What does this fold into?
Amino acid sequence: MTDCASCRERLMEASPAELRRVVAGRPEGRVTSVGPSGPGSKGIAGHLARCPACRAEVERVVDGLDALDMALDGPPDGIDVDLVLRRARNEQDRAGRRWPRHPVRIAAALLAAATLALLFRQQSDGPPPRPTPVIAALPSVPDVEVPAGRNVAVLPTDNPAITVLWFF
It folds into this structure.
């Protein structure tokens, strides 16, 4: 197998442990999907020994797997996770504080607003005045005399100087 496309397809079926063994140069072990190694072999390991592009791609995949394993193992030693979380919560609390936390200040502000609203409200004896409706100007329709038993349709056009009269 010397085809790069079929090699990549078989590599997608290989387990991470098999890929790591191939990169380390020892694809032995129980039955693997990568096959025997060496430049003269016909398996994927032989192809990787002959093809630097495929070998570099497998090494990139193994490096990504190693980085993922390190990230999933947890934080490195020497980092106090509880301390980091407490600091993050404190930062979030400080950034989120927009209103004063003192209930006396809040109550005083609400009382002042209610007093001002009562002082400045309008005193009226009757209901509030109704707004007068605005009547839009209707377009002028020409006066047309229609013979008895017939009708007419007045059709305005985009040009205000032209109006179509349709007798039917």
Observations:
- Residues 112 and 118 are 10 Å apart (CA to CA).
